[in-house]
Amino acid sequence: MSCFESSTFVKNPDIMNQEVLINACNKLGWKFTTSNNELTIYQLNSNEDLRGEYAMKIIGNKVTYNTYYVQNANSKVSELQNTFYELNVKYSEESIIKEFKKQGWTYKSNDKFKPSFDEKISFYMVGRSKLKEETEPNSQIKFTIFKDGSIKTDSDYIPKDIHELADKAMLELEKNIGNNRTIQGKEIPLKYKHKTFCENKRTISINKK
């Protein structure tokens, strides 16, 4: 996280959070088992016999599709993805609010936002600096959630102390969602050039292993 930036948690179709995926399977009526950090979907309908093979397997958040044994595999993958994405919108919203509240930020609605086909939810998380010398203590980060649960953020100036707290929240958000964040730096107004933690930026991708 930094001041004067926009960023996107890009959705990878092969990455699915297990908590959301379990809800999607329950909604679709698909049968599955869980063991340790592995979820195995073994039946998509009552008439299907996979002869002991799995239909889909998720280790961590990584999905593997067994398209060889599954009839109409592509349509089943699409069915799962559509259901998952619908549930993932709410999961993304709840994850953002939870992680930022942990760091002392508060929720603020975006009253001007109107949902569209692509953009489903938008709101702000608001932080207040405790630095005595800070002349602009209040900051907010705008979040927009798209139809597949991917997230876009937008921020301007953020004081150093709550800037560090936002960093922590963003890192946890990456873990929860299972997608890395791509950052696009914005031009920094001259009045903020003296802020040591505000730097000129270029487009970068943060990848964590």
Outline the structure in words:
This protein has 209 residues and is α+β, with helices and mostly antiparallel strands. It has one domain. Helix content is 28%, strand content 29%. It has three helices and eleven strands, in the order E-H-E-E-E-E-H-E-E-E-E-H-E-E. The strands form two sheets. The chain has a seven-stranded antiparallel beta sheet, with helices on one face. A four-stranded antiparallel beta sheet has the order 2-3-4-5, covered by helices on one side. Strand 8 and strand 9 form a beta hairpin.
Silhouette: elongated
Largest sheet: 7 strands, antiparallel
Distance between the termini: 18 Å
Percent of residues in helical segments? 25-40%
Mean pLDDT: 85
Q: Going across the major beta sheet, what is the strand order?
A: 6-7-8-9-1-10-11
Task: Output the keywords.
209 residues; alpha+beta; 7-stranded antiparallel beta sheet; 4-stranded antiparallel beta sheet; 11 strands; 28% helix; elongated
